[in-house]
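ok so heres the complex, three chains, lmk if somethin looks off
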Amino acid sequence: MPLPRRFYRRPARAVARDLLGCVLVSRRGRTVTAGRIVETEAYLGPDDAASHAAFRPGSHVLFYGDGGFAYVYLNYGIHCCLNAIAGAMGRPGCVLIRALEPVLGLAVMARRRRVGSDLQRLASGPGNLTRALGITLRDNGADLTRGCFTIEPPDRPRDFRVGVGPRVGITRAVDLRLRFWISGNRFVSHS
DNA sequence: TAGCTGATTGACT
DNA sequence: GTCAATCAGCTAA
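and the predicted structre for the whole thing:
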C-alpha cells in the first residue's frame, strides 16, 4: 500500500526526512520501475527564496493544494524534476526527490537512460531519476497515493543514519540545511 | 517580440 | 575546471 495522504500533510522538512528509504514506483502499462529514495531536499513556502512557491506562479495551485501530489517541472529546458507536495491544504511546501537506488526494472531504466550497467548513475540526480522512471511534464499533478506513480513505505528496517546539510544546485537561500540523505549510501548524487 | 534565468547533465579541455 | 543544450514563464519595450 502506498503512503497515506496524512504522511504528506506535515511540514516539508519532516516529509523530506521520512521519505528516505521509501520506494518510488512508476507504472507505465505493464512496465514497472522502482527505486529506493536515498536523497531529498525540502522546499518551503514564499519565505524560502529558493522555492518555486516564491517565484514561480504556475506552481502555486499545487504548492498550496493538498499534500501527496506530484509537482513535475522542466528546468534548464532539458531536465524534468520530481517533487512531492507536502503540507495540508493551504500550507505550501514540497520535497524534491534527488536520487534513487534502483530496485526494480533495471534493464528498462538503463534503456531509458541510454547507459550501460553503471547502476550507480542510473537514477542519481534529479534529472536522471525522472528519465529512468519515464516521468515527464504530463505527470505534473499526479496523485502519489494511487495511480501510476506511488511511494511505498520502506521495504526494510530503517537501519541507516540520516545526513543533513545545505541544499545544492541552487542560487538562493543556500545556507538553509534542508537537504537529507542516507548516510554512506553510494547512490547519493552529491557526496 | 526579444531577452533573460534556472532546484542539471554530459561532453570536453 | 568550463560550457553548450534548450524550454517555460517572466520582464521590458
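quick notes: DSSP finds seven helices and eight strands in chain A. thats all i got rn
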